[in-house]
Amino acid sequence: MAEKHSPLDQFSIHRIFGEIKIGELDVSFTNSSLMMVIVLVLLNVFLIIATRKKSIIPDKLQSLAEMSYEMILNTTKDNLGKNGAKFFPFVYSLFMFILLCNLLGLIPYSFTVTSHIIVTFSIAFSIFLFATILGFILNGRNFLRLFLPKGVPIYLAPLLVPIEIVSYISRPISLAVRLAANMMAGHTMIKVFAGFVVALGIFGIAPLLFIVLLYILETVIAFLQAYVFTVLTCLYLNDSFNPSH
Questions:
Q1: For residue 97, what pLDDT is reported?
Q2: CA-based nearest residue to 76, from 91, 93, 94, 97
Q3: 77-82 long-range Cβ contacts below 8 angstroms, 24+ apart
Q4: Which terminus of the chain, N or C, has fewer Cβ atoms within 10 Å?
Q5: Are 180 and 117 a contacting pair, CB within 8 Å?
């Protein structure tokens, strides 16, 4: 009897070198860890090669690097104003890391790091924690004005403040779930229709064409989700500088 495979099997995490523990903490090197290392290596190699010549008339790699650089720089400046320059390296690195994780996950038999909520939540919560600490460092108690903006009547505070607090606390959750859910849903659909192609044989042309279209759509979504994550990060950082806007 043929072994059945679930479309969700592609999201399973496996240890590569066996179990490694430090006390009670499992620090095993997994396929997820390997993919993140690959992403970091490829990202560094790409940027080093693309910016090595610095030609006046750029080649394709240099053009791609310059386009991504300019796009994220403008996004950072638009959302953070004069404070954008100091946070640009962080924001650019975040965008490129998430984008490359998303794109490499589209390669058959690879692993999609950003489909796991623990990864996306770890990134989102780190940003949330950093933005919160930065807000208190820069503004002190005035950072709490974020929960009761200027011009709001004081009698609305008992209603508005709890809503704003819940909204603020839910930021890392919504940021993480949005990215992970989109990646998981798209990859699951591709796997399901790939199963139809195999099962139908020569009659699987229709599902095959749909997979091609789905791959194009997922490529666009991979870019959009990385960009949305980046823009929201900029907005959260902006609140640290301007809590009462």
A1: 95
A2: 91
A3: 79/231, 79/234, 79/235, 79/237, 79/238, 80/234, 80/237, 80/238, 80/241, 81/238, 81/241
A4: N
A5: yes
Under 8 Å between Cβ of 98 and 179: yes
Distances (CA, A) of 238 to 69, 79, 87, 181: 20, 7, 11, 26
Global pTM exceeds 0.90:
no
The 8-class DSSP code of residue 83 comes to G
In the block, tokens 């909520």 appear at: 117
Smallest CA-to-CA distance from 175 within 243, 220, 235, 223 is with 235
Copy the structure tokens of residue 145. Answer: 């004005």
**Residues of the chain where predicted confidence (pLDDT) is lower than 70:** 1-9, 56, 196-204, 244-245
- Asked if residues 197 and 208 have their Cβ atoms less than 8 Å apart, the reply is yes
Q: How far apart are the first and last CA of the chain?
A: 64
Q: Is 25 helix (H, G, I), strand (E, B) or coil?
A: strand
| Tokens 């200027």, located at residue | 150
